[in-house]
Amino acid sequence: MSERRMIGPTKFEEYSEKYKDFLLMTRRDGIIEVRLHTDGGSYKHSWEAHTAWSHAWSDIGRDPENEVMIISGTGDKWVIGDPEVWNTKFMDWPKQKKLEQYHESLRLLENLIFCIDIPTIGAINGPGTHCELATLCDITICTEDADFFDPHFLGGTPPGDGMLLTLQNMIGFKKAAYYAYTGKNINGQTALELGIVSEVLPREQLLPRAWELAEMIMQAPRSTRHLSHSIISRPWKQALVSDQGFQLAHQMYDMAIDEEGALERLKKMQGRLMGKEV
């Protein structure tokens, strides 16, 4: 009889290498820093990265050597949109690809919340949409020029992939509706006043402060850290279970019947939206 092979978590050395084209990871004394990037610079949106993130959250969450996670970006921007990702209209995507996109979009946020059982800190390093990766964290800090902006409605698409959901639960339904319909920018100071972030800092102080907060959290016993995170993240689990699938399905249904396509509308509205992701 052959020996039973034990299946355990993937090692840091393996998954940090596996996702290095999309996420730069470092770890020190139990604190793992994960930075979005493209070619070592600010992250430029791609479907490959969109897919990789959800897998990365699962691997990070299953590694018991990770005790606190910091999520940040690279350079002076959080996200650089690439309208060309919509070069093929969504209604023309193969049926299987549409289904995969639905599940990957769900897992991107679900795995961040349901697979990560340690305290998390989001450090938004500059302008760019899709800040929900950071605002879903237990603590969120940002730079003064951070730019919270949901372009979906202005781009002719229902806002269903997470940005509006997080705003609804942080600032209330009325305020969130206003920002969804108008597409108005929320800068760092306004985000602080609205309760989206807890601190606003100059860019050079952002990551050092994130590490300072992580090291402070590490002073507590392991069980206290893990169980505190469970309590703190529970409202997000409830929100995702209640509303994420509903909102995403509405967005993707509209995209699937959209004959014009997001790229054409972005070209028409490039003065307002070009360089943003929808």
Automatic annotation (TrEMBL):
Q: Which GO terms describe its biological process?
A: fatty acid beta-oxidation
Query: What are the protein's GO molecular function terms?
Result: catalytic activity
Superkingdom assignment: Bacteria
Spell out the Pfam families in the cross-references.
Answer: ECH_1
Name recorded for this polypeptide: Crotonase
Identify the species of origin.
Answer: Paenibacillus jilunlii
**What taxonomic lineage is listed for the species of origin?**
Bacteria, Bacillati, Bacillota, Bacilli, Bacillales
